[in-house]
Amino acid sequence: MTTSAGPGAQYISAAALREFAAAIFERLGLPGPDAALVADCLVRANLRGLDSHGVARIPIYARRLRLGLVNPRPSLQITRVTPGAAHLDGDDGMGMVVGTRAMAEAVAIARETGIGVVGVRRSTHYGMAAYYVLQAIAADCMGFAFTNSSPGMAPYGGTKPVLGVNPLAVGVPAGRRPAFVLDMAMSVIARGKMRLAGMHGEAIPEGLGRDAQGRPTTNGMQVFGGGSVLPFAGAKGSGLAIWMEIMGGVLTGAAFAGQMRSLYEDFSGPQRIGHLFVAMRPDLFMPLADFKQRMDEMIERLKDSEPADGVHEVLMPGEPEARREAERRQTGLPITAEVLASLQAEAAALGVPLPELSPTPLTESA
Ligand SMILES: NC(=O)c1ccc[n+]([C@@H]2O[C@H](COP(=O)([O-])OP(=O)(O)OC[C@H]3O[C@@H](n4cnc5c(N)ncnc54)[C@H](O)[C@@H]3O)[C@@H](O)[C@H]2O)c1
User: Which atom in ligand 1 lies closest to the alpha carbon of residue 166?
Assistant: First the structure.
């Protein structure tokens, strides 16, 4: 699976890529701060090694914005429905703009009441789910992000893609140790990684997807267009994906279970994705410092446990991505030739200058 530099990749600093992406979204009609926010979310995914959810997505977001299927200047209405919960109408805005606003509200409510829940309807694809729980962690809160997503996964025992892969993200601050950041789609691997593998002509492993006729396939592109990816751990992954449809879609008033429009395949209207954000103060039952100390202690006990044969180190969820981020802040971000070509086309169409890239890793970056 391609999540790192392949042959022919060129390197760019995070700051230069952010500036470029923000300029593209501003030309597409987003207000400056919203364009910068979307760019930051995409570049953060690239920094964390999740290239499938980084700037490679610019062309599809641009296409939906141009078609008027995403509202570049949404009016975000928030209604407080109880002391602890609010409802946000995303007005078909960019998922990152809607999601960040919703998590900010959840954190604000949590500061008042201990826990804040914000349900979101009329949103669109929101990229890397970890972005929103990292936002909660930065505010010293635990964060949970639920979403549904484009139909693409068959429920356990089925062949038709009536579920999304519906990633769940959970973030919990720690003390000396890096925060716990679990961010996982309910498919064996994310559809975006299969698309990237298909784009690069790489086969996907067996057992991950079915084609439109319901037959097993190793061609990443065949899981799209009526094909489906498979849930991890059979009925268990499928059950969690259904739970995400309930929390993100059924509960919030968004579309659900195959009714939302696919990001890449359905241009007949806005996506109508739903999310649910929860922020919770970690000092509900003890002082914050004690909680963080207990998190560190738990992480250390797990990490100090004996690694399995052939495993160098027990890692915590989020640790591989945090390490990749530290590395990429130094080397810059690798951009493959295919992604670069698609960005060049957008840049030319919008009259945004493409920043310089380096054929080798950078020595100092941002
Ligand atoms: N917005 C959407 O609709 C959508 C849909 C699908 C996926 N996504 C995003 O795609 C990205 C990739 O999802 P994924 O399911 O392929 O993630 P993944 O399989 O790469 O990682 C899943 C989790 O496992 C952890 N992990 C990985 N290796 C580990 C190890 N050796 N030890 C301990 N923990 C480890 C990671 O830190 C992560 O928390 C996520 O950011 C997700 O939010 C978004």
Answer: 5
Q: Provide the token pair at 132.
A: 């929103």
Phi and psi at 118, nearest 5°, equal -125, 115
User: Ligand 1: residues within 6 Å at CB?
Assistant: 50, 53, 125-130, 147, 149, 165, 167, 182-185, 189-190, 192-193, 315, 317-318, 320-321
Question: d(Cα 261, Cα 142) in Å, to the nearest integer?
Answer: 31
Closest C-alpha to 339, from 60, 38, 92, 47: 60
- How many Cβ atoms from other residues are within 10 Å of residue 360's Cβ? 9
The Cα 287–Cα 177 span in angstroms is: 18
Instruction: Please report which residue ranges of the chain form alpha helices under DSSP H.
Output: 14-27, 32-47, 58-66, 95-113, 130-138, 191-199, 235-244, 288-303, 319-331, 337-350
The SS3 assignment for 86 reads: strand
Q: Find out whether 120 and 104 touch, Cβ atoms under 8 Å.
A: no
- The amino acid present at 241, given as its one-letter code, is A
Residue-range domains of the chain with CATH: 1-66+331-366 (1.10.1530.10), 74-187+231-304 (3.30.1370.60)
Structure tokens that stand for 41 in this block: 């979310």
pTM above 0.70, yes or no: yes
Q: Which two tokens stand for residue 168?
A: 């769940």
pLDDT in tens, 50-100: 999 999 999 999 999 999 999 999 999 999 999 999 999 999 999 999 999
For residues 12 and 212, is the Cβ–Cβ distance under 8 A? no
